[in-house]
Design a protein that fits this description.
This protein has 496 residues and is of the alpha/beta class. It has a seven-stranded mixed beta sheet, with helices on both faces. β7, α6 and β8 form a beta-alpha-beta unit. α3 crosses α4, α3 packs antiparallel against α7 and α10 packs across α11. The longest helix is centred in the N-terminal third of the chain and has 18 residues. It is globular and about 85 Å long. The structure holds nicotinamide-adenine-dinucleotide. Nicotinamide-adenine-dinucleotide binds next to α8 and α9.
């Protein structure tokens, strides 16, 4: 059985651990590899290697760091489809969706190529007579990243390229459910010429993560995953005096106004809700129909009901299986709860199974209507191909509903009214807003800005905020004496 290696000090090495976790093909649950839970000593070695590499990497010229990212971007593009195929096999994503996962990661590497401009500080000449102040942006040291299963290319690439381009070194702990994709990303990074120790990879679960969170040589922690784990990681990292950014769960609403273009709404909501089997943190899981727009619910349900799950290489497949039998069980039990609590199940995907692949983690597209705020299917993040439809009398009611929800990752409004769109974008307490765009994931020159329970921290992923997260600002105040200007000792704090 293939065992996933660790990456320590530039070498892919077999772990000495006897604790192995199966990596499965979600379409039939066959075991395709095993991933080790790194030993305590191996985690120590990874951190020590990153710490040693930092002593030289921080002094490498910034354009040279950018060139490493240029070579890496070229290799990622060259191997784009091959990475997507690995990704499809371990996640079950359709090939097109897997390619999107890789591509959105490459876009962040492209931002890292631009690091010289992003590291420019500020200067003011003559803050006092003959005194100048300027700032430099300097790296922190060893940073760590802990990533979820649902974007095994994009999310690791949110983290280590920018951190490293900014002059840091990195220890990545990818999801144990799909570690083959991040391993391939790391192989290409080494091939691009990354010096040893810049990127290290350790595998495992809670124990290995806790070792990173409490280690004094880790300066900053980036996490993406579920709410309980995000809260634990944020608290533990900050208790250990580390900088932390933790991206967590979501419940994303789309508000549909009666003046919206109906065909656009229906076509967009189908993919945004059940695409990727609903396993996207920006999936639309709640559609709020305002006024007469509720008349479109049966047609939407019919369209969603026609989406066929299938194998990654089936061009007709709308989406693939869920990641694990546990994830499937969780979604099925939430669907049951939705029915028991009184929601109307217009399309029920509970019994779906793909012929010839009955062992896989399949759930068919599911649509509920008459959903209320008290129901478990509304309160919980389902993370499956399930759309909850709700109704509101006016735009104000829809805004109040979305704002009462504890999550704030993404939202969208469909409308033909500029005034309604303007009101929504201004009043909504959600960090990423789409106007006639169902899944508003910003490109990497902006930042990924979830709010409320969808994010713990202050500086967000990629964009200028990530550069700020992975760096420290140093301000220098400098005076050069001119011999012919006499100065006595300065006994005050003022700069004169
Ligand atoms: P998860 O929280 O189960 O796991 C994420 C990572 O944390 C994995 O690497 C895992 O090994 C590690 N981990 C698990 N339990 C841990 C513990 N007790 N202590 C320390 N580390 C632990 O999440 P997942 O199931 O892999 O991913 C799905 C979740 O991620 C969903 O809730 C989704 O909304 C969220 N997500 C959020 C964003 C965002 O940007 N807000 C993006 C993608 C995914």
């Amino acid at each position: 059985m293939k065992q996933i290696p660790l990456l320590i000090n530039g070498e892919f090495v077999a772990s000495q651990s006897s604790q192995l976790i199966d990596v499965t093909n979600p379409a039939n649950n066959s075991v395709i590899a095993q991933v080790p839970c790194a030993t305590e000593q191996e985690v120590q070695q990874a951190i020590a290697s990153a710490k040693e590499a930092f002593t030289t990497w921080r002094n490498v010229a910034v354009p040279e760091r950018a060139r490493l990212m240029m070579r890496y971007q070229a290799l990622l593009k060259q191997h784009h489809d091959e990475i997507a195929e690995i990704l499809s096999q371990e996640t079950g994503k359709t090939f097109d969706d897997a390619k999107g996962d890789v591509w959105r990661g490459i876009e962040v590497v492209e931002q890292a190529m631009n690091i010289p401009a992003l590291l420019m500080g500020e200067t003011v000449e003559n803050v006092a007579r003959g005194i100048d102040t300027y700032s430099y942006i300097q790296p922190l040291g060893v940073c760590a990243g802990i990533t979820p299963f649902n974007f095994p290319a994009m999310i690791p690439l949110w983290m280590f390229p920018l951190a490293i381009a900014a002059g840091n070194t990195f220890v990545l702990k990818p999801s144990e459910q799909d570690p083959m994709t991040p391993t391939r990303l790391a192989e290409l990074f080494i091939e691009a010429g990354a010096p040893k120790g810049l990127l290290n990879i350790v595998h495992g679960g809670a124990r290995e993560v806790d070792q990173l969170l409490t280690h004094p040589d880790i300066k900053a922690v980036s996490f993406v995953g579920s709410v309980p784990v995000g809260q634990h990681i944020y608290k533990t990292a900050t208790d250990h005096m580390k900088r932390a950014q933790c991206f967590a769960g979501a419940k994303n609403h789309s508000v549909i106004m009666p003046d919206a273009n109906k065909a656009q709404v229906l076509n967009n909501l189908v993919g945004a809700s059940v695409g990727a089997a609903g396993q996207r943190c920006m999936a639309i899981s709640v559609a709020v129909f305002v006024g007469k727009a509720k008349e479109w619910i049966p047609e939407l349900a019919e369209m969603i009901g026609k989406v066929k799950p299938g194998l990654w290489n089936d061009k007709e497949a709308g989406y693939g299986p869920l990641i694990s039998p546990r994830a499937k069980q969780r979604v099925l039990s939430l669907i049951e709860q939705g029915k028991a609590e009184g929601a109307t199940c217009l399309v029920d995907g509970s019994d779906f199974s793909l012929a010839g692949h009955e062992e896989g983690n399949w759930v068919g597209p599911t649509v509920f209507t008459n959903v209320t705020e008290e129901m478990t299917i509304y309160k919980e993040e389902i993370f499956g191909p399930v759309l909850c439809c709700m109704e509101a009398d006016e735009l104000e009611d829809a805004i109040a509903l979305v704002n009462r929800n504890p999550f704030g990752n993404g939202t969208s409004i469909f409308t033909a009214s500029g005034a309604a769109a303007r009101k929504y974008q201004h009043e909504i307490e959600v960090g990423q807003v789409g106007i006639n765009v169902p899944i508003p994931v910003p490109l990497p020159f902006f930042s990924f800005t979830g709010w409320k329970n969808s994010f713990y921290g202050d500086l967000h992923a990629y964009g200028k905020q990530a550069v700020r997260f992975y760096t420290e600002t140093k301000t220098v105040t400098s005076r050069w004496f001119e011999d012919d200007i006499p100065h006595g000792p300065n006994m005050t704090i003022s700069l004169r």
